Amino acid sequence: MPGSMRAFLWRLLRLARRSKSEASLDGELEFHLRMEIEENLSRGMGPEEARRHALIALGGLDQTKEACRETRGIKWLDEFRQDLSFGIRILKKKPGFAAMIVMVLALGIGANTALYSILNTIFFKPLPYPEAERLVLLGEAPPHQGQTGAVGRSSYQNFMDWGKHNQAFEDLTAYCSEELGVAGGGEPHRIRGDRVSDAFFKVFRIQPILGRTFVPGDFAPNRNPVAVLSYRYWQAAFRGRSDIVGQVIRIEGQTTTIVGVMPERFRSLAMEGGARFWIPLLPAARELRRDSNLFMVVGRLRPGITIERARNDMAQIARNLEDQYPGARRDYPPSLQKGWGVRIEGLHNYFVQKGTATETGLLMTAFGFLLLIVCANVANLLLAQGADRRKEIGVRIAMGAGRLRVVRQLMVESLLLALLGGAGGVLLANWMLPILLRLRAGANLFSEFGVDKFEIDGRILFFTLVISMASSVVFGIVPALTSSQVDPLGTFKSFGSGYSTGARRRRISNILVVSELALSLLLMVSGSFVMRSLYQLWNCNWGFPVENRLAMSLSLSQRNYAEGAKRKRFFEDLLSQVRALPGVRSAALMRSLPIMMQGAATGVSIERNQGPDHRGSVSIASSNSVSPDFWQTLGIPLKEGRCFTDQDTSRDVAVVSESMAREVWKGQDPIGKRIEVFRHWYTVVGVCGDVVNLGFARKPEYAVYVPSSFTFDTASLVLHTNGNPLDLVSPVREMIKRMDPDQPITALRSLEQAQVELGEPWEFLLVLLGSIAVAAVVVSAIGMYGVTSRTVAAQTREIGIRMALGASGGSVIALMVKHGVRLALFGIVLGTVAAVGAAEVLASQYWWLTTSQVPVIGLVALLLGAVALLACFLPARRASRIEPAITLRLE
Amino acid sequence: MTQPKSEVLQGTLDLLVLKTLETIGPMHGWGVSRRIQQVSDNALQLTQGTIYPALLRLEQRGWIAAEWGISDQNRKARFYSITKAGRKQLRDEKKSWERMMAIINRVLEGT
Predict the structure, then answer these.
(1) Residue whose C-alpha is closest to residue A491's, from A412, A581, A586, A386
(2) Between A878 and A534, where is the model more confident?
(3) For A738, what's the count of Cα atoms within 13 Å in the CB-facing half-sphere?
(4) Which residue of A24, A26, A31, A75 to mutate against B (max B Cβ within 10 Å)?
(5) What domain range includes position B44?
(6) Does the beta carbon of A13 lie under 8 angstroms from any beta carbon of chain B?
(7) Where are the alpha helices (DSSP H) in B1-111?
(8) What's the number of domains chain B is made of?
(9) Are A861 and A834 in contact (CB under 8 A)?
(10) Whose C-alpha in A140, A204, A771, B87 is 20 to 30 A from the C-alpha of A71?
(11) Residue B2: inside a domain, yes or no?
(12) What is the DSSP letter of B9?
C-alpha cells in the first residue's frame, strides 16, 4: 500500500474516533494524577511539589497521551495490513472466482465511470474562461416569467442602457449568431459567425493567440471591416497559416480583414452551435427598436456581487426603463406590453440545466441500476463462497476471533475485490469512451458540445474510487454478516457433509436473485420501450412521407438582395427553373421546413365574433409561409377546404392544421373563420393534416400556413422527385450556380437523411440504454446460474439418493429447475410492476413514447424468462448426470 | 536490604498487568501501576505512564475490558477487568514464560 494511502486511512480513522477516545484518555490520566497528588500530599509534600512529583512519576502527561495514541493507530493499521494480506492470499487461492467477480464489477463500475466522464466533460467542467463563475447570461423576461425557464434575448437599446445604469457588472456584451456567406478560403460557403459588441472578448477574458481582438475603432461608422477567427476555422479553412493576420476574406460580400485568431479552448457558447468567426456588431436600423429582442447578453459580475444582487439591481433598471419609454412595446399584445423583467442565470448553471437534465437523469438512473444489479450479483457469489468457507470461519471463531473481526476481514476482501473491479472499470471505460465518440451519433452530439475527447482525470478516478468503495459495502455487508454468523460447534459437527447452507443464507440469496431479475427486467423494458418508440418515430408519423424528397436551404445576402422585389424575382425564377429539371415532380418554397421549425411558434389570436376588433383566445401555433405547391410537394393531406393558388400570394388567407381546427373551433366549420398572426388578419380557407413541426421529440403543435409573397431572406426548397432524390443534387447545384455564382446552398439532403440526422442524439441515448440492458441481462443470467449451481451442489447427496432409488434424470432436472423458475417468475412479476410504473413516468416526460407497452413487457419477460431457464438448466443437467454411487461415497 | 532496580523486560508488562488484574479484580490504571510497584517491592522501575498504552493494547486484543466506574474516593475512574480470553492468554503466557525461565536457568547452570 503506498504511503500516502496509509497516511490517509490513518487520518480517517483518527478523525472518526479521535474525540471520543481522547476525552476518555484525558479523564483517565486526570484521575491518575489526582490519586498520585493526594498520596504525595499525605506524605507531607506541598501542593506544588506533590503535583510535580506526580507528573514525573507518570513520565509526562503529553508523552503518555502520545504513547497511547500511537498504540491506538498502529494497532488498527497492523490489523488492516493483516486482513489485506490474508485477503490477497484468499483471492489468489481461488483466482477464477476472484476474476469472475472482478470482471462483473468492472462492467458495472466501468459503465458508470464512462458515463460520469462523459457527463463530467460536458457538464461538470467549469467553462474554459478565467473566473467563469462570475459570468452570467441576461435576457429580457416577459411579465410573470420570473427567474425560471429559458433566458431570452434582449433589445440592443435596453442592453446599452443596462450598461450605463447597472452597478453589478464589470462588463456586459451583446452578440448574435448568424449564418453568413463567406468567400475566400475555399468554396463560397455559409457558416456561423457571431456579431459581437465591443466588450465581448473582455467579458470572457480570453486573449487571441495571433493578432488582436476588436478595438473601439472597429465599431466606428467609417471603419474598415475586420474579423477574428476561431482556432478551428483557422485550421480548417486556412490550414493554420501563420501569416493569416492581415489577409482579406469576403463576408456577406464585404471585404474584411482578418485581425486575429482565438485560442482553441475559446469556443462560442454551446447553445449557438459554435461560431467560426467574430465580427463587430453594428446594429442595423431595425435592430435598434426597443422592442426587438434579438441579442444574447452575457455579463461579468463585479467581484463579490451575488447573482441575487444583480437580479435586484437589474429589476430596478428594467422598471426605470419602462417608465422612461412607456410606449416601447405598444405593438405587442396588451398582456405583454408592461411588466418585463430581466432573467439572469449563471452561464455554467444554464448549460448544465438546459434541456438535457431529463436525459442525464435517465442515463444516470439506468447506469445506477446496472451497478445495483452487479452488486446484488456479487453479493450472491460471495454468499455462496461464504458457505464454502464456513469451516475456515468456524475455526477462526473457535480460535478466539471476534465476530466483528471476522466481518472486518470479509469486508476487507470485498474492498479488495471492489478496488480491483474499479481498476478494471477504469480500463474498460478508457477503452469504451473512444468507441462511443467514434459512433456517428456520438460524434455529432459531442461536437455540438465542443467535446472531441474524454479524459479520465483525477476527478473521475476519485469518483471511481468512491463508487468502488461504496459498492464494496453494498455487496459485501450482507455476505459478511451472514457468513460470520457461524456456530463453531455446528461447523465441526457437519465437517465434510456439505449439507444445507442454512435457511437464512438461502433466503437472502433468493431475495438477491429476485431483485436482480426485477431490476434487469425494469432496465430492459425501459430500454426497449424507448427503442421501440424511437423506431416508430423514425419510421413514420411526421405527418408526411419522407421518400423521394430533396430539401435545401437558401439564404440571400442582404447586400445583393436588399430589395424585396429582387428576392421575389430570385425565388420565382428558382421555382420555375427547378420544376423544369428532369425528374422533378413538383417543387415548393417555404420559410422553414416543418420538422426544423424550432422556435417558430407564435401567438395566434382567434376571432370570437365577427367584427373588426374582437380578439378571442390566443393560441400558440407554428406559423409558416409557403408557396401554393407546399402540400402537394410534401405530401401533407388536405382535409377540408382548399390549398393556396397562385392568386393567393397577396391575399389574406390561411390554412390551419387539423388538430387546431378541431380544438379551437370545437365542431364548428373552420372555413371562413378569421385568425390574427403577426398583427395581420387571415381568413381560414383550408384544413390540412397535422405534422411534427417543431423538431424531433416535441408534440405536433397547432400550425398556421399563410401564402408566401416570395420575399424571403431565407427559404427552404423542397423537391418531390421521381427517383432517388440524391440524383438531383448536382443538377440543382449547377442550376443555382448559373442563377447566381455566389449563392451558397446549405442543408442540402434528402428528407430521409434529415430524419436520420434528427434522430442522432437519440440514437446515442439508445445505444447507451441498449448496452446497459444487455449487460444487465448477462449479469442476472450469471446470478441465476450461480444460484441454481449452488442448489445443485448443496443437494448432490439428495440427488444421488433419489437417483439410486430410481428417479430419472428428467425428474431431477425438473426438481432443480423448479426452484430457479419460481425465483425467476417472482422476479419477473416484480419487475413488471416496476416497469409499468417506470413507463408511466417516462411517458409523462416524452410524448413520443407509445403508451401501450404490453407487447414490450411481455416480450422482455419472455426473453428474460428464457435466459433464466437456461441459466438454471445447465447446472441442473449436470446434477442429472450424477453417479449415485459417487455422491454417496462423497461423505 | 535494597534490591537493584531493573527495567521491565520488553513484553512482560502485559503479563504483569494481566496477572495483577486476575488477582485483585477490576481496578483502575493508577491502582494497577501502584500494585505492580508494591508487589515487586519497588524493584521494578515502572514509569507509571507506560501502563496506559499497555492497557489500551490489551483492551484492543480483547484480553481485558474497561468501563467507567466510581473509585473508593468517590471519583470517576476507568476500571479494567480481565476477560475470558485474557485469562487464557495469561495461562499461555505464564506457561511460555516458565518454560523460557527453565531453559535459561538450565543454560546458566550448565546442567
Answers:
(1) A386
(2) A878
(3) 9
(4) A31
(5) 8-109
(6) no
(7) 12-24, 29-39, 51-61, 84-109
(8) 1
(9) no
(10) B87
(11) no
(12) P
Is residue A855 exposed (0-12), middle (13-18) or buried (19+ Cβ within 10 Å)? exposed
C-beta atoms of B47 and A59 within 8 A? yes
* Confidence check: pLDDT of B7 > 60: no
H/E stretch holding A791 reads helix A751-794
How do A615-626 and A703-707 pair as beta strands? Answer: parallel
- Grid coordinates given for A662: 378541431
End-to-end CA distance of chain A: 43
* A408 interface with B at CB cutoff 8 Å: no
Find the residue in B nearest to A62 (Cα).
B49
Q: Nine-digit cell at A335?
A: 398582456
Are B12 and B31 in contact, with CB atoms under 8 Å apart?
Answer: no
Left (φ > 0), alpha (ψ -120 to 50) or beta: where does B46 sit?
beta
- Nearest residue on chain A to B74, alpha-carbon basis: A31
What is the C-alpha to C-alpha distance for residues A793 and A444, in angstroms, rounded to an integer? 52
Interface test with A, best of B17, B28, B71, B78 (most A CBs within 10 A): B78
CATH number at residue B89: 1.10.10.10
For Cα atoms A301, A306, A307, give the angle at the middle one, nearest 5 degrees.
Answer: 80
Residue A36: closest C-alpha in chain B = B30
Q: What is the mean pLDDT of residues A461-477?
A: 88
Q: Using CA of residue B87, residue B89, residue B92, residue B94, what is the dihedral sign?
A: negative
C-alpha A49 chain-centroid distance: 73
How many angstroms separate the Cα of A593 from the Cα of each of A551, A604, A711, A748?
8, 20, 16, 12
Give the β-pairing of A341-346 and A549-555: unpaired
> Chain-wide mean pLDDT for chain A?
80
- In 10 A of CB A350, how many CB atoms? 18
How many CB pairs (< 8 A) connect A and B? Answer: 66
Give the per-residue pLDDT at A497. Answer: 42
B1 inside domain: no
Q: Which residue in the set B49, B56, B73 is minimally distant from A59, CB to CB?
A: B49
In a domain, B3, yes or no: no
Dump pLDDT digits (tens) for A862-881: 888 888 788 778 877 777 77
Its ipTM equals 0.81
A287, burial (CB in 10 Å: exposed 0-12, middle 13-18, buried 19+): middle
For range A364-393, the mean pLDDT: 82
B103 found inside a domain: yes
B28 touches chain A (CB under 8 A): yes
A67/B50 touch (CB, cutoff 8 Å), yes or no:
yes
**Residue of A31, A57, A75 lying closest to B75 (CB–CB):** A31
The full set of domain ranges for chain A reads: 3-82, 143-339, 357-539+758-889, 549-757
pLDDT in the model for residue A186: 64
A709 and A738 Cβ atoms separated by less than 8 Å: no
Check if A26 contacts B (Cβ < 8 Å).
Answer: no
Rounded to the nearest angstrom, the gap between the alpha carbon of residue B35 and the centroid of all alpha carbons in its chain is 9
Q: Which DSSP symbol is given to A743?
A: -
Predicted local distance difference test score (pLDDT) of residue A578? 93
CB contact under 8 A, B28 and A29: no
Q: Does B35 touch chain A (CB under 8 A)?
A: no
Count of other CB atoms within 10 angstroms of residue A546: 21
Chain A residues whose CB is inside 8 A of the B30 CB are 31-32, 35-36
